[in-house]
Known about the structure:
CATH class: Alpha Beta
Low-confidence stretches: none
Number of helices: 7
Oligomer: single chain
Radius of gyration: 18 Å
Order of helices and strands: HHEEHEEHHEHEEH
Bound molecules: ligand 4BW
Strand content: 15-25%
Amino acid sequence: MSTMQERQIQDILIEELMIPSEKVAHVQLNNPLEHALLVLVKSGYAAVPVLDSSYKLAGIIGKTAILNEILGLERFEIEKLSEMRVHEVMKSDIPRLTKKENLVDGLNAVINHAFACVVDEEGHFDGIFTRRAILKELKKEIYTKSYKK
Ligand code: 4BW
């Protein structure tokens, strides 16, 4: 890759490609698991961000984690959906990005995750950066290169 192309990629900021918070489905720390499962099923997403009451990022929660949690020896223990809260099941060790990081930082963050959450200096949730955003940029890059040949 040429220096010119590298510079262009590093000039693309996360804030240009992220999905802003108001368009991101999310749940809150103290929501019952039942609410989280409803949001996940209705939105169609496998996992969504978890926020605290001041809109700070706390983690993410996914369908598989919820189903694993309520899986008993012989049946799903459905009653747990109303007894347990999101904070008991969510994953908090997740990649985080800031708006001013660039596409390469974003690429590193989504190698092992379908999306990375974007936060400000105080941890407030700004949005998400997805694998789809990276793939769209790579597609542009490939098309531009083919066109130049
Ligand atoms: O409802 C959907 N609309 C569209 N346009 N695409 C969807 C939808 N649901 C899934 N997809 C596609 C996307 O390409 O399937 C991919 C995997 O979805 P996921 O992970 O396993 O639910 C989607 O890839 P992506 O856009 O790169 O998104 C990666 C992950 O980011 C999703 C989901 O966990 C999260 N996500 C994306 N948009 C979101 C969101 N979470 C909450 N709110 C959003 N608006």
